[in-house]
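Quick one, T. Sequence first:
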Amino acid sequence: MWFNAAMLSLLAGIAVWQVSASDLEYLRSVARDTWHCVSKMESATGLPYDNTDRGEFTSVSNIGIFLTCVVAARDFGFIDQAEQERRLDKTILAVERLKSWHGFQQSWNSVLTLKGSTSDPWVSVLDSGNLAAALIAVSQAAPHFRDRCKKLFDSMDWSFFWDKDHQALIGGFNTSTNKVNPDWRLVQVGSDAQLSLFFAVATGAAPPTLWDRLDRTKETNHGLSYFHPGWQGGGLFMQFLSAIWLDERNTELGRSSRNFAEAQIKHRPVIEAPVWGWSASDNPDGGYLGWQSIKDEVVTPHACVLPIEYFPSEAVSNLRALESLGVRSKEDGFYDAYNWKEKKRSDKFLVLDQGMLLLSLDNELNGQAIRKRFQSDAVVRYGRRLISDFSK
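Structure tokens:
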């Protein structure tokens, strides 16, 4: 079943009703253009390009985002069922052809040859969580692909990364040395490793106490506290990415994310910025702004849409302000980043950032469509019962 604007009146309690009907239509137009951009990032093999520069390598996080975006496009009615199935089949086939270790694909793979990167030989457990979540969402949205998605998901042996001595999940495996990195552990509850940590518990690879032992250190900005790694640890996407699939509303995680976004909204007038939204992104001056490199003067549109369920009017106002500054393209949605001091935008689109924006809108405008499917899966339901943050 797919959702459309006519059904919105049946969906009670959705924060987006704090904005006007014209704003709802505006958000739908943003979603349509964003899908137009994402759809063009599919390579000949079915894997998505990392960005519009169309470089050779893409990540498994990108693949997971792209697969879920195909489902979202159907939710919005931008594509029909036949196109959804054609696109899903092509990308899933590519994933099936990727080499795997203990069921996990190398993090960066060639969109041309489907071979792993020789310069980055790592399997990242964190990135694998995003692909795993997408496989579950697709299996619920498109029953024709359920068996194939289940086979890929079930092959992921999360126990291989469980460090019993340290009671922690190891973050990576080096395919060139065939060894895990024992010093790389996923220990922060407020990071984008939430899905991988969740799956480790939900599949029985790690005990529920893993979640209880996670680092809950917080930082405070503008009187609001939220979990590390926080502002300079990659910005908003770090806490909101997993929540695209995993429903964290009414949990400590959700409250932290809300506070994080509100702190950014409060930060804008303090630094006299015309717009807000700080998260890892392209740098209009070149390079990438990620860990420990977030700049006050560079904002990214996806960051204000990630918390749209908490701050719908602020998100819409910010998008309109960004558009007035020339940050929205004619048909591909918003460019990845904007330096408001230099009045300079990035002319690049990243599939991860565009995808997070589109999927956040799908959840908000289409009745939590992605989250509802994910939560309906038996493994996810079991995990939610085991983990205290979700079972309360």
